[in-house]
Amino acid sequence: MKKLALGLALSLAVTTSAWAHFQLLYTPESALERGEIIQLRHVFTHPFDDEHTMDMGRQHDSDELSPVEAFYVIHRGNKTDLRDTLKKISWQGNANAGAAYQSEYGARRMGDHVLVLKPAPYFEANEDTYIQQITKLIVNVAGMPTDWNANLGLKAEIVPLSKPYALWTGSTFSGVVMSQGKPVPFAELEIEYLNHDIDIAKNAMGKRRVEAPQDSFVTLSLITDANGTFTFGLPKSGWWGFAAVGVGPDEEYRGKELSQDAVIWVQVRDMK
Amino acid sequence: MHKILGPLLFIALLAFSTHAFAHTALMSCFDEGDDTITCEGGFSDGSSAAGIEFLVKQNDEVILKTRLNEFSEVNFEKPEGDYQAVFNAGEGHVVTVDGKNIF
């Protein structure tokens, strides 16, 4: 009986730890009427349940957190390094606080600003593996489309086929999962809703929005087709994260298994 | 040779802009912080606005009449007082930005 109880407890623990990690790259508004300086938050979290905030850059054999490998923006095809704009913060989740970053970016010029974050691989002790999520966020100024569907040739990337900042509730988002610029057939996608208000002034997660009827609804799953493309219906306004798991070419980091993932965030609006 | 190429290029740009008339006209302006204003124009399908007419009006009078350059933008000296920047791509495709909303 004790063994059964222990087995059940272990099984629950494993189930919990298996919920999807998502590198959040957040800004309040992705479709700007005119150019402005935008606030960004970089948090490694579980967007739906917020049951644990990870320390970005955690390593298996050191208390020192590794810095972000790359953070830049592409605008009209030009790349600008933004690593100097990153400031370390402690992000307060509903369960715990984790090491994260904040930054500001002057999205002044008209068009798309494709922000790319490549954090250092994070050591996930529960799985004895590293996770690196190369994350894209696209901000548009004044409605002029310029770079939103560019294939940047990243090691792991989701290239949108729908503008990620112009999505109505009830519409769909389509994309192509890429590895080094080439589509990945039958790639596994994890999808989560950012299910908490974000308090950017306090660097904290706020109130929860919806409850999942069952665990399958926390992290939704999708497999890309033979061409690496996918389409997902968007049932609720807010931010949705898409993660293509293990599609990057790097499979090992510091002697341990590495999952090199592609993440993209899209913002959905209600028709009012 | 350059004398011929210049007008030809401009005509080509105008022809290309015509294609965009089925789409929404867009303009965004910002203060450069050096007493000049930059306005960028475009169309919702991503088409270039090079060669499109651009006006600055003050008290209903046109104080500047020019065209957007090859990068679909224009830079001009910030007028004193109230003014309006006008992107004029033809009927139904006019965008006006009030100077009060340019930061």
Automatic annotation (TrEMBL), chain A:
Keywords on record:
Signal
Where does the secretion signal sit in this chain? 1-20
InterPro entries, per the entry: DUF4198
Reading the lineage from the top rank, the first entry is Bacteria
Pfam family for this entry, one: DUF4198
Name the record gives this protein:
DUF4198 domain-containing protein
TrEMBL record, chain B:
Extent of the signal sequence: 1-22
Query: What keyword terms does UniProt attach to this protein?
Result: Signal
Protein name per the record: Nickel transport protein
Q: What species is given as this protein's source?
A: Geoalkalibacter halelectricus
